Amino acid sequence: MGSKVEYVDSSHIYATNYVRNSKAIGVLWGIFTICYAIIVVVAFLTPEWMGDTSDSEYPGRFGLWKMCFYGGSTEECLGWLGDPSSVPGLFFKLASALAAFSILLAAATILAIPLFLFLPSTTLFKTSAWLQTVSGVSLIGSVGVYPMAWDGELIRRTCGESAGRYALGDCSVRWAYILAAIACLDAFILATLAFILATRHIKLQPEPIYTTNGSLYKGEVNGGFMGDGHSIAGSRKSLNLHPVLLMPQPGDMDRYSEFSNRTGRSKSSAYRPDYASSMQNFQL
Fold first, then answer.
1. Who's near 192: CB < 8 A, 6+ residues apart?
2. How far are the Cα atoms of 22, 144, 172, 268 from residue 223, in angstroms, in the given order?
3. Residue 69 to residue 77: CA distance in whole angstroms
4. 42-61 burial by CB neighbour count: b if 16+ within 10 A, else e?
5. What is the distance between the alpha carbons of residues 128 and 151, in angstroms, rounded to a whole number?
6. Is the separation of the CB atoms in 155 and 62 below 8 Å?
7. Are 103 and 40 in contact (CB under 8 A)?
8. Where are the extended beta strands (E) located within the chain?
9. pLDDT at 47 over 80
10. Are 221 and 208 in contact (CB under 8 A)?
């Protein structure tokens, strides 16, 4: 059996590639969404938002809700996540609450990922995008409110009297604070990508409709199929055949129709003895 050749419209190829690429981008979006939640959780738990430097008199490190001080060979930490009253300072509590709310929204986005198997992706992408947007805004609030707590007594004991709101004194910002700031940007990038995936759709192409002679409405002709009323001689596009025209020999004024057939009787007619020699057909 010969090989079967199938002709595919370029728009269908584009649609197939678009669906394949959009699924791959959706998978990457889900992976980075999980990474975003992990980053926020790590930044929330670690007391490495700011800390002492070599100029600090009392070494210590500070997080959102936890503060640790070095006393000799041991480290003493204040603040417990299960007891908000143990967190020193109003702004520390507010920054911790905003960060915790951001984690809850990130967790809700992760829980919505398995629902893509059962619910329309457009609705889920829009919902996830709004969750990530609010999560990013909440995390920005936490990062912005945190420096307002630097004028506390415990902070000044480590960072010096020059420490104050948005003033580090003898302390420095550490990696957890920078990580939280990067997570803010990550949240808005993921939200923007989710909005794009939710609003871009593929316009379904209608199936081609054939007429009775096997041609498309756009003027294309299927060379492998001809209807009953489709003439081989009269078609200019079917099978690349040229039209057939029967012409008499020049000089014969009295002639028959080009579409009449000669018979044995006509050749031997007494009235037209020169028929055989006077009528010659040429195919152009």
1. 129
2. 37, 71, 78, 44
3. 6
4. ebbbbbbbbbbeeebeeebb
5. 37
6. yes
7. yes
8. 50-51, 60-62, 67-71, 74-78, 172-173, 246-247, 282-283
9. yes
10. no
Element (H, E) at 174: none
For the chain, what's the residue count? 284
159: left (phi over 0), alpha (psi -120 to 50) or beta: alpha
End-to-end CA distance of the chain: 37
What mean pLDDT comes out for the span 46-57? 88
* pTM of the predicted protein model: 0.65
Return the closest-CA partner of residue 183 out of 22, 24, 8, 38.
38
Q: What is the pLDDT of residues 125-170, one digit of tens each?
A: 999 999 999 999 999 999 999 999 999 888 998 998 889 999 998 8
The answer on pLDDT for 37 being more than 60 is yes
CB 244 within 8 A of CB 260: no
Tell me the two tokens of residue 122: 């457009």
Between CA 44 and CA 143 the distance in angstroms is: 11
Q: Which two tokens stand for residue 249?
A: 């020999």
Residue 86 per-residue DSSP state: G
Structure tokens at 13: 């190829």
